[in-house]
């Protein structure tokens, strides 16, 4: 149900912003039709876990994006330093299994995607409550192991 | 004001180009497959982000900016999936990473 509400809010907004036709009746009708078709495809595909979508996530996700963008900038600076000055900033590749506390598949996906999106750490394998992470440096892995990102994603997910 | 915008755009585009080149250099410099993926990540994330942000400043508050924002959004949604699929495939076919301190590499 929440999935239907979310897609009926976001898909029309997406169509309007992409097309820019606000006042053309026929085109708006075609837009509505394509929204219905896209929502139908979405509903058919979301068989595994249709209950994990919460409209409240829409309110929480902008703050998370801002925080994540900050992390991405920091991680980029770190990796660029290691690329251009390998003597002063040597790499120390590390691989470790990290605990994750998300309860839904969506939450795990967001967490693994966030790990991979920040340069310097890549999520290789995701299981029930562990994520295998490869990191360019021990420091990057230590940052992740503090669990800050994990907590933020779990809060974003809001499953309990 | 227009001069300031142009200046900011130039700075952002230059930063984006520098980061893109850095990613390319990193792909060549790093020792193994897994660490090279990290270097490619620089090009995927902040390099593309800087260039698109610079272009958004030129387009102003229009639908074009919105489309550029969508490009950035979808790029940031999909590029980690590609990196993850690559490293996972490498891991599954038994490629061992070069590790500085071998711990828990099971």
Overview of this protein structure:
The complex is a heterodimer of chains A (160) and B (106). Chain A is mainly alpha-helical and 160 residues long. Helices cover 62% and strands 11% of the residues of chain A. Chain A has six helices and three strands, in the order H-H-H-E-H-E-E-H-H. Chain A has a three-stranded antiparallel beta sheet with strand order 1-3-2, with helices on one face. In chain A, a hairpin with a 3-residue loop joins strand 2 (121-126) and strand 3. In chain B, helix 1 packs antiparallel against helix 2 and helix 2 (33-59) runs antiparallel to helix 3. The relative contact order of chain B is 0.13.
Question: How would you describe this structure in keywords?
Answer:
heterodimer, A: 160 residues, mainly alpha, 2 domains, 6 helices, 11% strand, B: 106 residues, 80% helix, PhaG_MnhG_YufB (chain B)
SS strand fraction of chain A: 5-15%
Helical run tally of chain B: 3
Helix content of chain B: over 70%
Class from secondary-structure proportions of chain B: mainly alpha
GO molecular function (chain B): sodium:proton antiporter activity
InterPro entries (chain B): PhaG_MnhG_YufB (IPR005133)
Keywords (chain B): Membrane, Transmembrane, Transmembrane helix
Protein name (chain B): Monovalent cation/H(+) antiporter subunit G
């Amino acid at each position: 149900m929440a999935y239907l509400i979310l897609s009926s809010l976001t898909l029309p907004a997406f169509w309007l912003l992409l097309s820019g036709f606000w006042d053309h009746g026929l085109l708006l009708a075609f837009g509505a039709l394509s929204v219905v078709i896209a929502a139908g495809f979405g509903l058919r595909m979301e068989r595994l876990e249709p209950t994990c979508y919460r409209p409240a996530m829409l309110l929480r996700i902008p703050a998370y994006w801002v925080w994540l963008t900050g992390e991405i900038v920091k991680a980029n600076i770190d990796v660029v330093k290691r690329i251009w000055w390998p003597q002063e900033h040597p790499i120390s590749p590390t691989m470790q299994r990290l605990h994750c506390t998300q309860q839904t598949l969506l939450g795990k996906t967001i967490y693994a995607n966030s790990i991979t999106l920040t340069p310097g750490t890549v999520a290789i394998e995701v299981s029930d409550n562990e994520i295998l992470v490869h990191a360019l440096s021990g420091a990057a892995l230590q940052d992740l192991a503090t669990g800050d990102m994990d907590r933020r994603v779990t809060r974003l997910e809001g499953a309990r | 004001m227009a001069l300031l915008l142009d200046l900011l755009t130039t700075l952002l585009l230059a930063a984006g180009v520098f980061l893109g080149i850095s990613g390319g250099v990193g792909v060549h410099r790093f020792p193994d497959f897994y660490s090279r993926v990290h270097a490619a990540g620089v090009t995927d994330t902040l390099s593309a982000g800087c260039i698109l942000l610079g272009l958004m400043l030129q387009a102003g508050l229009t639908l074009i900016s919105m489309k550029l924002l969508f490009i950035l959004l979808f790029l940031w949604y999909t590029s980690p999936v590609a990196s993850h699929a690559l490293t996972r495939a490498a891991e599954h076919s038994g490629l061992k990473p070069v590790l500085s301190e071998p711990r828990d590499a099971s």
